[in-house]
Amino acid sequence: MRLAAVIALTLVCAACSGGSSEADPEPTTVPPGPVATTTAASAPARRPLMGTAVRADALAADTAYAAFAGETFDVLTPENEMKWESTEPEPGTFDFTRGDAIAEFAAAHGQTVHGHTLAWYSQNPAWLTEGAFTRDELVAILERHVSALVEHFAGAVSVWDVVNEPIGDDAVLRPTIWSEAIGPEYIEIALRAARAADPDAALYLNEYGVETPGPKADAFDALVRDLVARDVPLDGVGLQMHVTDTFDGSGLDARLAVFADLGLDVAITEMDVRLELPADAAALDRQAAVYGRALDACVAAPNCMSFATWGWTDRYSWIPSFLPGWGAALPWDENLDPKPAATVLESALR
Length: 350
Ligand code: XIL
What we know:
Layout: H1 3-17, E1 49-54, H2 56-61, H3 63-72, E2 75-78, H4 84-87, H5 97-108, E3 112-119, H6 126-129, H7 135-152, E4 157-164, H8 177-181, H9 185-197, E5 202-207, H10 215-229, E6 236-239, E7 242-244, H11 252-261, E8 265-276, H12 281-300, E9 304-309, H13 319-322, E10 326-327, H14 340-346
Parallel strand pairs: 1-2, 1-9, 2-3, 3-4, 4-5, 5-6, 6-8, 7-8, 8-9
Antiparallel strand pairs: 8-10
This protein binds (3S,4R)-3-hydroxy-2-oxopiperidin-4-yl beta-D-xylopyranoside.
């Protein structure tokens, strides 16, 4: 059983037995937190691991930000620190400094790390994107990178987003350096290399825009189904959930069930709910409802292992610089004060 599953199940059992985790065969670094939630009475008494993306520079420089991140969440995702441009700036030369900083912070706070990400089309170094490599060379480069990272962070990272955003918005395999030079097999190659490097890490595909039914979700499901059918090592899928306050969450339970039927875990990996600026009180309430719906769906789905937001405070959200005119996307505001959305998440947090 993968570590993340052990931890989540420990929390489930803690709900039944009043907090004892004696049956847990492996020492977990995450103490059982509060398990009751405000969801419907019929929902099972469990909570997913609660997570957030963090920035190493902010953890080092912003004491209040670091203290809250350390005490509130179960899992941390490095927002940029484990991406290719950060970790392999020169071919075969690895820099784990900033990833290690987050892993060490997490360990010091009894948290685990959700590794992000090993094969993606974005935030790659120029030597890689402009290298004009042959197929064989790129396969070797991909395997070397995946092996190096997964081996280095073994024990610290319990879940990896092995492949990020494999499907394009046109609902076909996204054309990337990987898919164009290697073909669709790049996904399988990355997953197999990750499994070989750390058999205990859970391996995920992570995607946006597939939390609602539609052509992109269909394409994603077909990809996942094919990998499962061929016994390619895959443990779960991440639904990013970068959405707005008009997001319709009514189909979410069905989406999570698709993966349960395939025997896979699922995680909400990068949730934020962006608002058109300036955001008024009604927008903040709609935002809280969207966060609440997603958390309820995750709590109610036995295969939903973790629920993470893409940062926790608007002070460091990526949204305003990427989508001008939008912002206020996270549950805590720029002053680190809770918004209505934070209240909705509170009962599930540590
Ligand atoms: C974003 C980061 O938040 C930014 O700081 C960075 O400049 C660009 O990437 N989907 C993902 C994340 O999987 O890696 C992205 O993170 C947001 C969208």
